[in-house]
Amino acid sequence: MSRRKTERLLNLVICLLATRRYLTADQIRHAVPGYAESDEAFKRMFERDKEELRELGIPLEVGSDSPWEDEPGYRIRRSDYELPEISLEPDEAAVLGVAARVWQRASLAEAASGALLKLRAAGIQTDEATPAGIEPRVDTSEPTFPALWEAVRDRRPVAFEYRTAGATEPTRRRLEPWGVVSWRGRWYVAGFDRDREGVRVFRLSRIIGEVTPIGDPGSVRIPPDVNVRDIVIARGEPAVERRVARLRIRQGAGEGVRRWAGDARPDGEGWDLVEFSFRDPEWLAGFLVGFGDDVVVLEPADARDAMIWRLKEVAG
Amino acid sequence: MSDARGGSALERLTRLLTLVPYLLAQPGASVGEVARAFGVTEKQLVDDLRLIWMCGLPGHTPADLIDVSWDGDMIVVSNADTIARPLRLDVDEASALLVAVRTLADVPELENREALDRVIAKLESAAGDAAASISAQIAVQVETEPAVVARVREALRRQRRLHLRYYVPARDEITERSVDPMRLLLVEGRSYLEAWCRRAEGVRLFRLDRVVDIRILDLPAAVPPEAEPRNLDDGLFQPSPDDVLVTLEVTASGRWVADHYPCERVEETGDGGLRVALRTPDTRWVRRLALRLGSAGQVIDPPELAEEVRAEAVRALAAYGEVVSSTPAGGQ
Question: What is the pTM of this model?
Fold first, then answer.
């Protein structure tokens, strides 16, 4: 069944590419083997075939060659169908070979290798070898990634359940997605939140369950000059002045702090004194508390208090 | 995604429309090599060739049909002018490549920037507006350390040994080591050097943002033949069965732990929190994590580790003149 259908469709594509004139349904029925005898069944098959060719991205044209013809005709214009002429220099082919391996999983990996096959089918030699040993990989295993990719591609608003950091219950969010960004190895979607009436960023790993479209394709309008990458990166980082904390670090310890601190001066038996630049005292305390009793915050007072508060939480 | 029968009728049609021009462009390609390129079995490919052979121009006389022969192993296709060029890239195909190339282009010291720009322009013109616009909506930002990446690349190119001062967070130590570079990896948004570590006598990954200092030595790199590059398809970190299994319970505000670390098991606790189990060769970083979590989470197992965390917090508080009973709260 499926083999005969593939055969029919391939013959149909060849027939419509070969013709200059528009062919009516009846002409096609005679030119392409495999269609049903009865008119009713033929009509159904042909309707379905047209729809499926369009789904594959095959540009089926409808029209007629003469104004007196009232039955619509069909053809595929080669210039719309064919991959345009493209030639790649060896260094460009090498780049493309690396790029095609970037996607680590499923949907995009398949799309990228499909694209590469088409380029090879157009006679372009792409390079499989990795130049100078570079391997970039991007993981798209987030379960909601394909649905959001499609929503961004088709400009459709979506809804999903989302659990904000620290919240116990997820809430339903309605979003006009503008773009999907991977930053520091995690995926985010940015866009206009219809309920909050503002720009919001969501982490894909905090979306619970399915992402469902709630509007028509093409109905999301992205404001000009929007740069989704900047929105994601700037999120939650208000411009706060840098300040300097003074820390005591045990000698021979706290290397992870010293890496980012100023020069150390000895400060009593077994201890050093360093200066450490920071913006948010809570962030500073969160970073330093991991070093346990190897690091002591001397000042400023708000950072010192944040540190004591965190330690008490653990000490009980 | 083709199954044993080679996928649905439409998937198969898509493949055939690429296969015919592919075979025309590479006359004499072997069945094995083409099957591999298309991700199908040799049997499936031969079945595809038999199907193509039945198709052609209206009329379908022998002169209209596509000629296909596979003599021994060489495939030759002719009389297929109408479908001699592949179909245009669809939006997903073009975007997948464009986003990937743009990702590389964002790492200026990584690749020949000028070649990347040329490829982007060519792909955009081949792909059409839809793909060009979606690829601007999808972005991957990779963190790199430009100075370190430049040295690593130079060492790879000249095949030289590197000397690293490298920070190991689990032990809070800066270590010194000589390594023979194998590959530069950009995975999960970060950059890593994969190298043969002469101290550990094994293949190790070094996260470039933890490299404190890097020098190219005047010695040739000597990666031993037994050095196996990591298979990236299995994920970057593969826990060893000898590692300690640690269980943590986190509240809703500590759920990020499950995103952040490769966990062996993650269970909902029912009140918005999670119970996560992870394996680690070194529990020191778990101690650090637990201190950082504060009221957002605690170590459940092993119990000795939970007690160490508490004891460390008590000691640290003493430095602030804060005295907390040294027996656990539950024991009073």
Answer: 0.76
Cα A244 from chain centroid (whole Å): 38
- Residues of the domain holding A56: 2-81
Q: Is residue A138 part of a domain?
A: no
Domain boundary among A215, A234, A253: A234
User: In chain A, how many domains are there?
Assistant: 4
CATH of B146-234, picked from 3.40.50, 2.30.30, 1.20.50, 3.30.1660, is 2.30.30
Among A102, A140, A225, A283, the strongest candidate for a mutation testing the B interface, having the largest count of B CBs within 10 A, is A102
**B9-83 has which CATH code?**
1.10.10
Domain co-membership, A117 together with A153:
no
Question: Quick one: A113 and A153 in the same domain?
Answer: no
| Domain-wise residue ranges, chain B | 9-83, 91-137, 146-234, 244-322
Burial class of residue B179 (count of CB atoms within 10 Å of its CB; 0-12, 13-18, 19+): buried
- Supply the ipTM of this predicted assembly: 0.78
- CA-nearest residue to A121 within chain B is B22
Residue of B92, B140, B271 with shortest CB distance to A182: B140
User: A81 contacts in B (CB within 8 Å)?
Assistant: 87-88
Tell if the CB–CB gap between A120 and B189 is shorter than 8 Å.
no
3-class secondary structure, B113: helix
Tens digits of per-residue pLDDT, B164-218? 999 988 788 899 999 999 988 888 778 899 999 998 899 999 999 899 999 999 9
Taking contacts as CB-CB distances below 8 angstroms, the residues of chain A near B95 are: 111, 153
Min mean pLDDT across A170-174, A304-308, B104-108, B159-163 is at B104-108
Neighboring chain B residues of A290 at a CB cutoff of 8 Å: 288-289, 291-292
Contact B119 A88 (CB under 8 A): yes
